[in-house]
Amino acid sequence: MTTQLIAARDGKIxxxxxxxxxxxxxxxxxxxxxxxxxxxxxxxxxxxxIEGLAIGGGLKTKxxxxxxxxxxxxxxxxxxxxxxxxIDAGADTIxxxxxxxxxxxxxxxxxxxxxxxxxxxxxYQVAAENTAQGxxxxxxxxxxxxxxxxxxxxxxxDFITVHCGVTLESVxxxxxxxxxxxxxxxxxxxxxxxxxxxxxxxxxYSQYDKLLEIAREYDMTLSLGDGLRPGCLAxxxxxxxxxxxxxxxxLAKRARxxxxxxxxxxxGHMPLNxxxxxxxxxxxxxxxxxxxxxxPLVTDVAPGYDHxxxxxxxxxxxxAGADFLCYVTPAExxxxxxxxxxxxxxxxxxxxxxxxxxxxxxxxxxxxxDRMAKARKALNWKLQFELAIxxxxxxxxxxxxxxxxxxxxxxxxxxxxxxxxxxxxK
Length: 426
Description:
51% of the residues lie in helices and 10% in strands. With 426 residues, the chain is an alpha/beta fold. An 8-stranded parallel beta barrel has the order 3-4-5-6-7-8-9-10, surrounded by 6 helices. Strands 1-2 form a two-stranded antiparallel ribbon.
């Protein structure tokens, strides 16, 4: 079975390359070239009929929204509503992080209804099903995990997070240096403890070639997960994180050689002054593979507002080279997000992505802002609402206090600078 990467090597421009190039406003050969050198991926399982998504260098920064059940909230329709809200708010992809209930059923329901690429983390299903059956969390096998990955591929999953860089050596590096908050990634902590429990290497690392065979069969993009990402500012840029990134760079080369598309996941929590350097380092160590980051969250003390802390870090990260931002909601660190949390998280992350695209000079990014400036100059409220990143919110705020003069707003009222500028002076 061919993949987008194998097709590009054969000199072919696929239908997906054509379609997505037109959407991005670039030449199809630009997409083909990026896939060839590993700086761009197209996330689309060859079993799905969706358009797919191009992620990578020279393209618009993309936004992912996470949904998914937990043991304490297993309502499938609730998760489907979150998916709908996320897409309506402008999310480019959806990741199903379900850890409770009928996980395969939730995934299949999502695959049937979701018009954008879907990602999953297969180890969540294996671990959750083991514990639900009364087994020890760590009594899972490499074969179990690879079998689950195969099922996700058959179901049409477009990209999967796999924590292949959590190795005996990377965990040793982390442990010897010491951390304030240890490992905060669910997948990372399971793999680290599995290796300690069994005294063996991470099966996704030791059996990486088998993983590549599965991914190639379905053209399923590998998102090489940052299982050792920092979960607080104190742990940012430590040896465990950097060693894992070096390993992921080596694994990315092996994936591309096998015809498998790959992107790299990144931090986590990180001080503002370390973000740009981390983006540069990742691109260098991973040969410019698309970089997918969670935030980064730039402070640890804002629970309830972490969509803002993540958007601040995301704007800096994307302007410095990150290609794909995973949203963070106001519920981060507190509870499973509601539909409103999902909406707010997507909008905040889209603002960060767009701000970064302006800084990166992505074609057409500034045009949007310039159109808004012209609409404001013309006091054209209808067009301002249409151009707003969240039109409903803009209309709602405007309607809360009606101005005496409909041309202006209640902030400046009769002293509106724009209206004053229109005033005829003899």
